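Exercise 7. Predict the joint structure of the components listed below.
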Amino acid sequence: MQTAVIVFPASNCDRDAATALEKLTGKAPRMVWHNDPIIPDDVRFVVVPGGFSYGDYLRSGAIAANSPVIQDLKRKAEAGLPVLGICNGFQILTEARMLPGALMRNTNQKFVCRISRLRLANAKTRFTKRYDAKNEIDIPVAHHDGNFFADDDTLRRIEGNGQVVFRYVDNPNGSRNDIAGIVNEAGNVLGMMPHPERAVDKLHGGTDGIPLFKSILESL
Amino acid sequence: MAPTKPADGITPEIVAEHGLSESEYKIILDRVGREPNLTELGIFSVMWSEHCSYKSSRRHLGKFLTKSDRVIQGPGENAGVIDIDDGDAIIFKMESHNHPSYIEPYQGAATGVGGIMRDVFTMGARPIALLNALRFGAPDHPKTKSLVAGVVAGIGGYGNCVGVPTVGGETNFHEGYNGNILVNAMCVGLARTDNVFYSAAKGVGNPIFYVGSKTGRDGIHGATMASAEFDDDSDEKRPTVQVGDPFTEKLLIEACLELMATDAIIAIQDMGAAGLTSSSIEMADKGGVGIKLNLDKVPQREEGMTPYEMMLSESQERMLMVIQPGKEKLAFDVFEKWGLDVAKIGVTTDTGHLVLTHGRKTVCDIPISPLADDAPNYDRPHVPTEPRDVLEPHQVPEPTDFNDALLRVMTDPDMASKRWVWEQYDRHVMADTVDSSQSGGDAAIIRIHGTNKAIAITTDCTPRYCYADPVEGGKQVVAETWRNLTAVGADPIAITDCLNFGNPERPEIMGQFVGCIEGMNEACRAFDYPVVSGNVSLYNETNGVAIPPTPAVGGVGLISDLGYFKTLKGMKEGETLILLGETKGWLGSSIYLRALHNREDGAPPSVDLAAEKRTGDYVRKLIRNRRVSAVHDLSDGGLAAAASDMAFATGVGVALTNPSDLPGHAWYFGEDQARYLISTDANSINPILATAEGLGVKAQIVGKIGGDRIKATDAFDVSLVGMRDRWANWMPDLMSGATETV
Amino acid sequence: MIARVYVGLKPGVLDPQGRTIANSLNDLGFNEVVDAKQGKVIELRFAESDAGRDAVEARVKEMCEKLLANTVIESYRIELDEE
Amino acid sequence: MIARVYVGLKPGVLDPQGRTIANSLNDLGFNEVVDAKQGKVIELRFAESDAGRDAVEARVKEMCEKLLANTVIESYRIELDEE
Ligand SMILES: Nc1ncnc2c1ncn2[C@@H]1O[C@H](COP(=O)(O)OP(=O)(O)O)[C@@H](O)[C@H]1O
Ligand SMILES: [Mg+2]
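Solution:
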């Protein structure tokens, strides 16, 4: 199965994402450069990785959201291509308006790196089916701007639609409603601050990220 | 600050402002054969500064063991290179950024991280891990909190952005650092043994490329500042500090590694302290060639920069390289793809001179060899530190309340959890962190990507021991890193160091320096554990008061199979704790003495290197034979602290006993060296004890695992969770309400 | 010509940075501060041109919408300065 | 009373943010932008008081020196507004 990871200048979890995808699909993902106008047609699943695209200057994800490849990603996502934005990738997807809301500075103003416990708020999405009966998982977070904000109307709407996928058990950043990850209305675009690609290996961050990748890959 | 306009004559005042002595200036006159102009003088001054020339330390550093079967490159290059089999090489170094971090903690620490990473990727390695050894003033000193907040944010801000995990380090507090904090950063990179890059320029007529950020007026005279003492005015002087740009650094890493995969690069050198000057001169000197640079071609951030300013600027994120003729276009293409400034600024020559032109005029023409070869090399007078009396256990009061004693020891500033610090560092990026600060373990474990082997890394130093007895302290520092690597099952391979001391012109400080080196070297030789890179930071004094001698050491070891490593975590209910190594109840210079009695007297524990070796080799064997479920070495705070660390990390209680004749405080809190605690199941106890006896390693059963308390016969009995909370909250409590510049 | 773009959080969006500043100021003894907000100023310098004020302003507005502000949480204000 | 504090990098100090913003605007086709700088505005609201303008300004200056600006690399400007 062909997957892809988008690489921006100073993405830095591109390798983490590629390692996870290769492990789970048996095939190296295509690394698509931010300036490429087109994501190759054979790509069935795209990861927008974490990191500090453009140094996070101006606002996290803002500059990357305007890159050529994201314009193509938007078109393809609207046509149903599944996309996972992790950490900086989540920030980029909100900046690109592919997901609602915005990610602001953590309330305590500090970068936070820890294993965080997440509650599955919606276990029926294309990304969470394989979690079966499990309702809490441990996934690492590592971010400075993970404080999810949406205005009251938006919040009500996404809660009502079941778009909230993960919530923090112990909110590390001040996110409204403890939101750690959301999908778009169509359910094919997931953005999350925690790093599931850092939880696919017993020796490194645990294995609670594996069902997420399995869910989406099997749905294709 | 020196005048920046070209002066007609060099006055004694100008010479002094450049930190050069009269006799040093005489040598310059002699070697150049005429009066230098200001640019030339500036170049000599930075090259001959303590920071670049190691003039007080060189002859002593030469004594270190620097070779072993695994050493590919020892000291003398940007970083040390060791062979870890299968064609893989590990490249690492530690460096200080003390003075800049005191003046501007965020940027000072950030640029320190950036600088050490450049030293490593310059040699062809992808940086894979960062560590940081930090020393701050007393917790209640008015500057401490904001310095801590700024330094930690700066280290995280840079490392996190570049995407290299910060996996370990140490954090101490002591009033001896009130006016001079220490920020030492270590970087470890991974390369192929057949693709390591060096700095020696080769050939004549080869193009010299400048890559990275533009040159501005940043940190001019940083190198001389790093070699000067602070006084009360230093806060006000505020020399131009450099601002780090981790985004550009990340691009620079990717671009350099991309170009290094081709055969375009002959030599490469990062521009660190003394920027363009030291990088060009080091490349030329090592290669025995001359260099001609056209300064008009240097990418500049500001208008009207003089040759003096360009040569002395310490703008960050810049590299210099000699490119294979014919590969210029390839180089341009790679750097432009990554959006970096790139320019051909000169060529190598056969003149042996550094020639600079600016606006069609020659502004500098000096022979290169004296800049390096004739740099001052002083044999500064040194007097050894007076030996202290050994404190016997009965000379140290026993606690009236052992629970309180344990609490005080575990919440001593050096002992309390540093989660507040390391939670601000991305420890997992790059997908290979097997263990890090997270577990509170002895050494971080980083897997070699795509393989089943790993390296273990640690940094250590116990300045109070070094102050009490530099020679024993020096031994102890090296031994502790060796022990920490051993405790996770790694074979210790080599070290890097960062020697932080006061003013070397004072014989007692120089005595500390010489003593520490002697002790370190003795330990290196005993363990076949060479020094492959390092850094010296002197003049860490304020108003004549020096920091405690602080030779920080970073150790690296190899775990050739990840099937066999251990951490301090993982012991199981019902297991037995065995103490390996001999306990005499050493309380001199201990944490116990300081935490309970506010005293730092007494000789520090002596280090029996043969016992260290014997015991450590045995521990590694036990780990390889899967005889143990958890291992921790004993250091600060002794047995009680080590057992508590293990209990905190695992969430299971321990019950300790005292099978010795020693009083409780000496047994539980003594800091005798060469000791480890291991946890094992019932079946393994007898074989472990028997083998130990055969090897001449003392082994005693000292406790049981289980329950939810940390207790000890005739001593303490506290709840694990309660004690852990106090230990965990010390630093958040300290830092709450810390006011960092926003 | 120089344009200054002021970007601040919309009313109703919690401003943790502002909150922290106010708290820190209070801790330092500046008790008269009841509230603080933090925003950004982006100063843009333009190449010489004969574009009129309105044209420039329209372009800057476009820059704000596209990049300089995230209108989900931020509002902006433009100031032009002939120098 | 409201005080607005403008904080920006001192001339000559590297401004990686500003440079990246300018580059990105150019990439988006805003080629007229030759340079960008990013600074901060901190808006402070005060409790009612009879402190005069000068007294308030002196206090804000102290806040800047102590906390709001990092005077090693930043300079600041204060504006007072009676509302
Ligand atoms: N500045 C720091 N950065 C990262 N990790 C740190 C820092 N300070 C302390 N730590 C971590 O805290 C743990 C305890 O540190 P320390 O007491 O120095 O350990 P040890 O005595 O075993 O060397 C270690 O895992 C260490 O890596
Ligand atoms: Mg240890």
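Discussion. Residues B 132, 134, 168-171, 418, 421-422, 437, 440-442, 460, 484, 635-636 surround adenosine-5'-diphosphate (ligand 1) (CB under 6 Å).
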